[in-house]
Amino acid sequence: MSLKYGLVIDSIFGFSAYAMFLANIQEEYALAYEFGTLAINLTERFNHGGVKCQVLHVFATYVNGWNKHLKYADLLNEEGFELALEYGDINYVGYTIMVGCYNLFHQGKPLEEMAEKIEKYLLYTEQSSNQLATDLLWAAHLVILNLRGLTSDIDSFDDGEKNDEIHLNNWMECQSFMVLCYYYIIKSQACYLYHKLDEALDCLSEAEKLLPFISISIPVAQHNFYSSLTLLRLYPDSDLENQKQSMEKVRKNQVRMKKWADNCPENFFHKYLLVEAEVAKVLGNTLEAIDLYDRAIEAAHENNYVQEESLAHELAAEFYFQFKKPKFAQIYIQQAYYGYRVWGATAKTKQLEQLYPDFLSLLSDTQKSGVSITRSATTTPSGVALDLSTVIKANQAISGEIVLEKLLMALMNIIMQNAGAQSGYLLIADQEELIIEASQTLDSDQIQVLQALPVQENAQIAQSLINYVRRTQESVVLNDAANQGNFINDPYIQDYQPKSILCVPLIHQGTLVSIVYLENNLTIGAFTANRVEMIKLLSGQAAIALENAYLYQNLEKKVQQRTAELALANQEIGILNEKLKAENIRLSSELDVAKKLQQMVLPKAEELDDIADLEIAGYMEPADEVGGDYYDVLKQGDRLKIGIGDVTGHGLESGVLMLMAQTAIRTLQKMDETDPVRFLDILNQTLYDNLQRMKSDKNMTLSILDYHQGWVQLSGQHEEAIVVRCDGKIELIDTINLGFPIGLDDQIADFISQQDIHLNAEDVMVLYTDGITEAENMEKYQYGLERLCNLLIQHRQKSAHEIRERVVEDVRGFIGEHKVFDDITVVVLKQR
User: Which of 256, 326, 650, 811 has the greatest number of CB atoms lying within 10 Å of its CB?
Assistant: First the structure.
């Protein structure tokens, strides 16, 4: 109907609901995202905040999470909350509150902060009699209190006055099935964490009956995730029939989770990997499980899901305990402990302290407070027992060294001590060739480093073996090199008859960094599986350390080269050295001076307040690099001259041109020049001559407003002037035909014209520079003229000062932590 007869305001929610349908029924998440975005964009066209808060709620709850990280819904919920408050929509105030809190919970935000938010919001929802929002907030609050250890024990889910059974009965009597479903899902998570598997399964079973009541919201995925994990944890103790049913259910869940993970890996890939790791564990696929646990941990870490990263560490620890690898398990259980502490799950950390007192009692108070240690590589074939403390100490020694020479010596020393080799070489991959950068033999304590010898020139290495490892990036162990293996025909091996050889590539981010080549000519099979695995465990950190050390060395060389050049320059300029220092100081402070000057010449507040029939509020914030924005308000009798402009480019020249314009405009005002054509023409000629003298290519857009008794005469080319009438109608006045850029040509009089605008009581006129409309956020989206206009319409009834503040706040909030690339300037006029 919308396509046939045209868009109306009801089309907006129609598209929004269709987006929900696409996600919930069709599972076409990308298309759902497009329709949801369309609905949001249409709210800007129709300028209806009441509808927008509803659309934002649907998008944040049912669409965003299947396409983007959950954190992006936070801003949507916040905006929806503000709009719902503004339009008095009490129901949607509650909806955005409750969904926003669950969104934060599923992200793994600190539980203490969550509790504070919920307690504050409960006061509002209870006072406004929003029962659904109140009940949902209580459901989350009960579980958070339990996780924080603020209930009598881990089996208790109470609020200090009544337990969850009373809440459950109330919800059941009121048929609050959505609340019941949400509560059972998050309670199942807590029960699973405490290893209360039967209780977790009961909660999941109850929730499954109620899933249709929560549609395709993120808790559906949480139910999928914990359902699979719970069934897999119960799997070993189940009979064959239950095992078969459980695995079928898990596989079915994983098909759906894989689809979600493919569409939005930020939210679901780590969940998919962790379940796959547990599947591999129960099926006995040891090596596959090792890899999957580490990948799940890494994916959860990358996307800041601290609670699920901690869970992955805990499950990996249980895996290593099961396979009698307590030293490996210790690293993982400590990381789990740290993560749960950061999350604020005190009850869980206390349980871990009881379950693993020997491992966690060794931690310092600082570590127990949540400070994490560097994660160590732990992938190893089953059956190899390593001295993990040695690996950790070695990794610390390697990672802590940045100077290449010292790193090479430390690395060779560690390798030779732990590998059982008589001689060893460290070969660096330098573009198209391998060079020897370090070597050592046991008959000499001295380590040779920074040799930079091409491998081809060294006769003490099996060249064919080196080339093979370089090409395949695979480790090779020769237990009897002269008599066994694929390299017995290598010239070096034939001539020297070595017994044991180990060759291991050091790889960083898929790129070969170095090769470790070791020999033992006394013993066949000298490089045992234990020693080989030790070298492999060290290889990852060694590759990273070498990469960093070479970057540091190159930087040092560049610094040394630059220092030498400066020293030579100092010798050549001699007595000019002090002048050069002064110039450097001047250059470093020029922008700061320009910024201060920009601020100093702005009109003072008392000047703007002393205007009888017009409210004026102005604001100008210089960019990180001066952008040359200008505005001024000049009073002469009962008339006002208001100017706003923007210089092209950034830096000192832009700031200087702005100051020249400000001075020239004030001069012309003092000369009582009232004709707009002559005014702008003389101003242009003055600045043009100075720019030619400066050999600068800068120019300036500039609009001049002459105000008198409710009438504005606008001239000069700049951004559109915005007029918001008291009834909410908006007028955009294009200035493209009212002038020409200042300083670009010596004659612009023929291009100048003017337009008269009458301001009625309560009408608002806004002037701005493109630093506002072209401001970018972290996602590279621009603020835009449409958003500015909508904001002005919403706040048109406020004072000029309040309107200015709302514009500045909104632009700052939009930019966030992104760099401010251009000056931000706005002038608000309101007819009294």
Answer: 811
* Residues contacting residue 13 through CB under 8 Å, at least 6 positions apart: 39, 51, 54, 55
Supply 510's token pair: 């898929």
CA distance 559 to 581: 19
3-state secondary structure of 413: helix
Neighbouring C-beta atoms of residue 748, cutoff 10 Å: 22
Tell me: pLDDT of 785 over 80. Answer: yes
Residue indicated by tokens 């695979």: 474
CA distance 223 to 303: 20
Give strand pairing partners of 511.
508
Q: How far is CA 27 from CA 272, 687, 743, in A?
A: 18, 62, 58
Q: Do residues 217 and 64 touch, judged by C-beta distance below 8 A?
A: no
User: Which tokens hold the place of 801?
Assistant: 């000062």
Report the alpha-carbon distance of residue 357 to residue 325 in Å, rounded: 17
Is the backbone of residue 816 left (phi > 0), alpha (psi -120 to 50) or beta? left
Residue with tokens 């996600």: 23
pLDDT in tens, 536-568: 767 666 776 777 777 666 665 656 666 666 666
Between 133-147, 361-375, 623-637, the lowest mean confidence (pLDDT) is in 361-375
* pLDDT score, position 382: 32
Return the number of other C-beta atoms located less than 10 Å from residue 787's C-beta: 17
Neighbours of 4 (CB within 10 A): 5
Which residue in this structure is represented by tokens 């349980």? 351
Phi-psi region of 6 (alpha: psi -120 to 50; beta: other; left: phi over 0): left
Q: Check if the beta carbon of residue 421 is closer than 8 Å to that of residue 518.
A: yes
The neighbouring-strand residues paired with 423 are 441, 519
Task: Give the integer Cα–Cα distance in Å for 139 and 214.
Answer: 14
Q: Which residues pair with 512 in a beta bridge?
A: 507
688's tokens:
């043009």
What DSSP element (H or E) covers 643? Answer: strand 639-647
Residue 374 has pLDDT above 60, yes or no: no
Residue 369 pLDDT? 42
